[in-house]
Design goal:
mainly alpha; single chain; about 240 residues
Length: about 240
């Protein structure tokens, strides 16, 4: 079906027919779980031919597809463009911003979402949840500590890996010292440079990689907690 809609566009359909075909093609991709293709198709829609309400709907669908495709940065960039005119949009906002690490904005949207039909009795619980949002590990601190193995690894909670890194760096230094003391200055220095390039600089790079990984994982885990909370609250019948 997606191919048929694309053929219709290629054959020179009018503006309205083209937009309708692109929307239909988007639905095909969504049914197949191909959300990245769906968001790309939505980006081809001629927005200038839409009413404000239609434009808002298309942007919402595009943000949703980015989110479902795991393209969180792209989804977050659309937050300011979609008018929060429904509870579904507020829900998507809250989730996108939580997974993007923009916790204050996410909390505001989540509060508005669960209070859509009147002030929610879960607002205090929501506030308590967002107080537990993860603190981002400092990339600069990780870089500096990475030059002092195993501190960079310890900063990221990788204690076993840190001890291994410290041992490898110690072995590299011992190699240099042993060769120099034996009179093999050239081999000691050159060999030491090569060894330390792998062990010492490797420790720095690994420390930075661990920091980025931990920050990303912590944000995703908190986003999951927000998702579970909102799903539970919104399933409860309105009083």
């Amino acid at each position: 079906m997606a191919v048929a809609y694309e053929r219709l566009i290629y054959d020179g359909a009018g503006l309205e027919e083209t937009n309708a075909a692109l929307l239909a093609k988007t639905e095909c991709y969504k049914m197949l779980g191909r959300y990245q293709d769906a968001s790309g198709t939505l980006a081809r829609i001629r927005m200038y031919a839409l009413t404000p309400e239609e434009r808002n709907t298309v942007l919402y669908q595009q943000e949703l597809c980015h989110f479902l495709a795991g393209e969180l940065d792209q989804a977050a960039t659309l937050v300011a463009e979609v008018e929060p005119s429904s509870q579904d949009i507020l829900l998507l906002y809250a989730l996108v911003l939580a997974y993007a690490g923009r916790y204050d904005e996410s909390e505001l949207m989540a509060a508005r979402c669960i209070s859509w039909n009147g002030e929610s009795p879960h607002l205090d619980e929501l506030t308590a949840l967002y107080r537990q949002h993860p603190a981002e590990r400092n990339a600069t601190a990780a870089l500096v500590l990475g030059f002092l193995p195993p501190l960079g690894h310890f900063y990221n909670g990788a204690y076993g890996e840190g001890l291994l890194s410290a041992g490898l760096n110690a072995a590299s230094v011992a190699f240099v010292v042993a060769n120099c003391m034996g009179g093999y200055w050239v081999s000691g220095i050159l060999g030491g440079i090569v060894a330390l390039n792998y062990t010492w600089m490797g420790s720095v790079e690994r420390s930075q990689a661990l920091t980025e990984k931990n920050n990303n994982n912590a944000t995703i885990l908190f986003g999951e907690r927000v998702r579970e909370f909102l799903a539970r609250v919104m399933e409860e019948p309105a009083i």
